[in-house]
Amino acid sequence: MLAYRSSGFYHLIMKVKKEIDKSNVKFDLNLRWYDYFFLLRPVLWIPVWTFLFLGYFWGSALETFNFTLILPWKFWAILGLYSLMMSSVYIINQIVDRESDLINNKLFLIPYNIISIRTATIYAIILALVSLIVVYFLGVKFVILFILSYLLGMAYSVKPVELKARPIADMLANAIGYGVLAFLTGWAVTGKIQGRAFIQSFGYILFVSAVFINTTIPDIQGDQTAGKYTIGVFLGARNATILSSILLFLAFIYSFLEFDVFLMIPSLVGLPIFIISIWDESMQMAKISYRAVSFLFVLMVALRFPLFLALGILILILLRIYYTKRFMINYPSLTGR
To answer: Which GO-annotated molecular functions does the record name (predicted)?
Structure first.
């Protein structure tokens, strides 16, 4: 099977399938100027922003039950630059994943060649260079965190490392990328990164690991067809959900010990959903499990920072309009794509 997938014949089959799929598509395959914005995967900015805000919150030692309306200009500069740099990684990931995305019928811009691989690659390079050059003027510590985040993102997507195709490593890469590097980047805005920052981030490592596992479950069939060996493929849906439930439980215990309300409530509410999904192995239940828990987690942080809430709502509205009008699908949603 592996030999078949690595052969030219497999790619020929994929090419034929792509042409068949193109002939049956119901959306316009012509490029629109706003496609370049949505190629950035702004939906993934929201979890990145969540951990940037959390890092800033803990680094500033703010009160939990309060609101922060005004943040320093440096925080907003870092948030914008970090988002652009991560979008560079997301574009490369879409290029690498174009075959499996075609099978799973998602992220249409590159799989259907609406935006060419060459154009997307140039776009990604420009985003990475601009963000790294500009952030240099904000401090060396940010340059280091940006480079580490970028290298981890590339290692996640690109061969020969390709962490996303290595079970456990794919989970850890996401956990470290969000729960540690993005978190520390937000913390660094407040001053020196202390040892306390790493202790505080451990609960987020557990939480992100649990959520990530469940995100791989709906794509198991498509990933198997494309030869991707994710943690979901490796464990199978049932065992993967058991592991994610254990990790979410540990995240709750850790949040209780640290009195981290942002982590405590989503973990507590999410546990029953994760446990139910152990027996209900449907794709719909898997999507509900990670989307509901992620939404509540983001909402907890957004309520603490109202400007984040406003930005998040704006992004979700734009995404809903775009995917409804452009591709005629219900996205973002709890049970849709």
So the answer is: transferase activity, transferring alkyl or aryl (other than methyl) groups
